[in-house]
Amino acid sequence: MNYKIGLVGLPNVGKSSFFNLLTKKNILVANYPFATIEKNFGILILKDERLEKLKNYWKSEKISFSSIKIVDIPGLVKGASQGLGLGNEFLSNIRDVDIIFHIIRCFPEKEIIHIEGKINPIRDFEMIKLELIISDLQQIEKKSKKIKKPQQNDKEWKILNFIKKKLQEEKMINELIFNEEEKKIIKRYDFLTNKPFFFLLNYNDDEKELKNFKEYAIINNFKYFPINIKKEEILNEKFEKKDIFSFLITNIYKMLNLKTFFTVGKDEVKSWLVKKNYNAKECSGLIHSDIKNKFIKLEVYNYFDWLVFPDKEILKKNGKIRKEGANYLVKDGDICYFLFGN
Q1: pTM
Q2: Which of 12, 53, 210, 305 is 20 to 30 A distant from 267 in Cα terms?
Q3: Which domain holds residue 248?
């Protein structure tokens, strides 16, 4: 499955530099607005030491880690929802991603132009937030025009009206609480303010603005992580071992509700990234549609059991290898052998 992360922010906040760090690419980084005028794509490899240990044990010829697509989205400006700057294109690019990394500029460096003329991280995010809210309101308005006579007891209509009211109060949809049925209805619309997100606070040695935004994030219960992107660029080769990388991966898994299972053998060991609610048959379909269509059963044991009993025969003797049916909920770290018919 191809999950996408969107890097979002005003021009000159460090998005492209952070994109280069994550993807090991070298796209243009320049000191003027809209150096990025088209979205850039890259791949974030999810290195997993569990898979590396399995490769060593199986002496596999190939190791294949899971990955996530990173999208460096061109910078937003005030009025984007009205088509200003790269407006409509910017908003459509966000609609296409699963999770948003808001890159917030917390450094006051005079040599680097700020599109609003002055550093103010809270104002910058509030500006982006407002553009996303306006875009969601426009979507509701379009839907309203198509419905000539909505029924008073129409659940979808009631939810849309509730959301409209909250958006007008400048509340984002992902700040609101809904039951599972309501969430399914809302999901049809792919609202921009309903996407999961967190903040990467780009700072330098002057931490005044960083402190201000941290307080704002804590009050609003927003997830954030401070990062000196300029310094990280210098230490690029060590980036994956740092706390920021672990923080990103952990939060991506939590916010997108993901898990990893493994397939192993002498030819290849591979990790597979799936939603937590995927069962054995659904997981088998990621490998090949024929396996899903002709699924018989799953032979499975978990990575942590393998660490204790690193041999298949010993695993069997200790009852750690199980045979499961199509509805078995695959767990994070499961090592899977899918059995299927001809």
Answers
A1: 0.83
A2: 305
A3: 4-118+191-256
